[in-house]
Known about the structure:
Blueprint: H1 2-11, E1 15-19, H2 25-31, E2 40-45, H3 49-54, H4 59-65, H5 70-84, E3 88-94, E4 110-117, E5 122-129, H6 135-154
Parallel strand pairs: 1-2, 1-3
Antiparallel strand pairs: 3-4, 4-5
Helix pairs in contact: 1-6
Amino acid sequence: MKEVIAILAQANKTISAMESCTGGGLCNAITNIEGASDVFYYGAVTYSNAAKIMMGVSQDIIDTYTVYSIEVAKEMSRAICMVANSNYGIGITGKLNRIDKNNLYGEDNIVYISIYDRDNNKFIEKEVKVLEDERSKNKQIIIDVITSELLKIIK
């Protein structure tokens, strides 16, 4: 993540994130890096559907594809980008080792990641299977995938 922050700062680019299952883990990883305030504009943890909708995710998209889908991750990444007026937005949704009684649809242990490149109006999509018993390990896997994908995009 240190390299991501350095590259974004040098390019005068910014990033924001809307997280669900990672619960702010990505924002924490970003803000652990000195100089992150130069590039990190906004982070939102939207655990509930209502919070996602409040931040700009379409209720119709959630209803059509379920909250656990790449379509919702894409909406999250674009919405946070617009709210924060940043160059890149990241959306993360999925299930980490638990059944969601409020959202019974969607495959367990699959996390959907979208990185929205606002300057090029382009989405980078990833689907990651997480099988660790500890939630913290699964969150770290997701953060590592996002870091790797960001480096591919911004270099």
